[in-house]
Specification:
Layout lengths: L2 H60 L5 H16 L7 H20 L9 H51 L1
């Protein structure tokens, strides 16, 4: 075989390896970016809704009666958003329990029962909101670990392919 032919084959092989590494790198970088977006989007929204509902609960239990209608609307809107954003195991049951407890709180408010920070429904609603927050924080941690495993696997593949191409080049 002529040197020119060997050189052409070697350069072609090197070009193919570079294309393979670039393709794998781009594919997995996009995959990791998509996974990261998903991790943050749905879970972050639930955390935001829970925070807003917790603040509205505090207003309902601590503020004057004139501030309650706005807090009720805020809570209802965020609860509806949460009902449309159920993505994790256990989140649906907790959200339904929250909805039921909030309905009881609305009834108590309508009957002009004296409400304060120690009202049992307030504590129950807070507990539901903390459960929602915990479920979603655990999901963020779990999904982040999965994304890290994917990143580790990509690095491993790229190192194996790079090492393999170096050994072939050395022959």
């Amino acid at each position: 075989m002529k040197i020119k032919t060997k050189l052409s084959w070697g350069l072609s092989f090197l070009f193919a390896v570079i294309l393979l590494l670039a393709g794998l790198g781009a594919y997995y970088a996009n995959r990791l970016a998509d996974e990261s977006k998903e991790v943050l989007k749905d879970n972050y929204e639930t955390l935001e809704y829970a925070k807003n509902m917790l603040q509205a609960t505090d207003v309902l239990l601590l503020a004057e009666a004139s501030a309650r209608p706005r807090a009720l609307k805020t809570f209802q809107a965020n609860l509806q958003h949460q009902l449309n954003n159920i993505t994790e195991v256990g989140e649906q049951a907790t959200t339904i329990a929250l909805k039921e407890n909030f309905a009881l709180l609305e009834t108590a408010l309508a009957q002009a029962h004296p409400l304060n920070v120690t009202h049992p429904l307030g504590a129950t609603i807070r507990q539901n909101l903390f459960q929602l927050t915990d479920i979603n924080l655990q999901a963020i941690i779990r999904k982040s670990k999965a994304a890290q495993k994917t990143a580790d696997r990509v690095i491993r593949y790229l190192v194996i392919i790079g090492t393999f191409s170096i050994f072939i080049r050395l022959k």
